[in-house]
Amino acid sequence: MPEQTMVIGLTGGIGSGKTAVSDRFALKGIAIVDADIASRTVVEPGKPALAEIAAHFGDEVILESGELNRAKLREIVFADPSQREQLEAMTHPRIRDEIVSGLQSARSPYVILASPLLMETDQHQMCDRILLVDVPEDIQLQRASSRDGVSVEQIKAIMAAQTSREKRRQNADDIIVNDRDLNWLDEEVERLHSSYLSLCQS
Question: Annotated binding residue at 11?
Fold first, then answer.
């Protein structure tokens, strides 16, 4: 990617509000490279990763439409860490290639790499700074279960598989504690946007 393009890694646990934050940066004209979109792109029907997943996990993880049955696959991999490692070996290198392509094509003063697994993978190595969207765990559970329609137990399993809140806070350069209203969030994003533009110019 061009040397002058600063990369801000945006991350946070499930239900923290990463999308609300990235949407606000996007409204300011900042390019967003979303690792979740990259992860969906690499397993589209006809892509090599989907064929590998079907061969390893069986036809039960493929819907009649030919698309990936994400709910079934999530159920399998969160019940068995070795299966999750298998899935990651099939998908992470391809997701990384997709992300690098997106970062290289970004045309804004800085670019945001939004990824829930920024610290769990080597994606953080692509970033100049890390912005953490942090939220107390009880709010995480409440938001994620009501949004995704899955059980609190499943949300807890996902949280357990992610880097701990304490470690994320230690590794972040900037933190938004997203437990207030949207007007406050707008102000926080504006403050950080101004700071990042100054860093780009220094």
Answer: no
**Residue 16 annotated as part of some ligand binding site:** yes
Is the distance from CB of 91 to CB of 1 less than 8 angstroms? no
Note the pTM of the prediction, 2 decimals: 0.85
| Model pLDDT for residues 161-191, shown as the tens digit of each residue | 777 888 899 999 999 999 999 999 999 999 9
- Could you give the maximum distance between any two Cα atoms of the chain, in Å? 54
Q: How far is CA 145 from the centre of its chain?
A: 18
Q: Is 9 one of the annotated binding-site residues?
A: no
- Report pLDDT digits (tens) over 16-43: 899 999 999 999 999 999 999 999 999 9
Tokens 């045309």 correspond to 107
Residue 19 annotated in ligand binding: yes
Domains and CATH numbers, the chain: 6-196 (3.40.50.300)
145 known member of a binding site: no
91 is in an annotated binding site: no
